[in-house]
Amino acid sequence: MMANLQQAPFDEMLIREYLLDNPDFFNRYPELLVAMRVPHAERGAVSLVERRQELLRQRVSQLEEEITSLMNIATHNERIFKFNTELSFTLLESNDLGELRQVLSEGLKNEFGFSHVRLITVHDIDSELAKIWRHRVQSGYYFGRLTQSESKRLFGSEVGSVALTKLSDDNGQVIFAIASKDPTHFHPDMDSLLFSQLRRLLDHMLPQL
């Protein structure tokens, strides 16, 4: 009977639940922390104390990386906010459509290194642009890559990736198009905040020019 009990496997989940429910267990039996050993890929067997310290160090390192990442994102967003504010005020001083297009293009190219920035009016007789309008920006935005023919029609050459948005119907069929040489710069999961803000401003200004 005793031999059978000794050979019976322990339920590891019960042990796990017990230790979780009794976090002071090793305080009551501190000698176990030193006596028990766990495998380590580089150092062989180590004590539970050493293993716990290592796990804590790894967690602290992970948290530091997450904090650094969040700070970088915050810095990036602050840069975009300041740029967008300055660009908006400059655009509001434009006297005609040509000047607005120049300010918009130069500002975005200088700040982000985009290869092309265009405001494109879609005419009914232009079947290629009308197709892009229907298939790419019907939902409001498109971030990603284009076919070779679409790139050449919108920008006059092949590009890496694009951000497309249509202006409001009050302005007719107008596409606000930005291109990057980098095929991965614009992608479907990216945030549209910058473009939505610029689109609202352009929607407000174009009827007045």
From TrEMBL:
This is DUF484 family protein. PANTHER family: DUF484 DOMAIN-CONTAINING PROTEIN (PTHR38765:SF1). Signal peptide: none annotated. Pfam families: DUF484 (PF04340). It comes from the Bacteria. Gene3D superfamilies: 3.30.450.40. Keywords: Coiled coil. Residues 46-73 form a coiled coil. It comes from Shewanella livingstonensis.
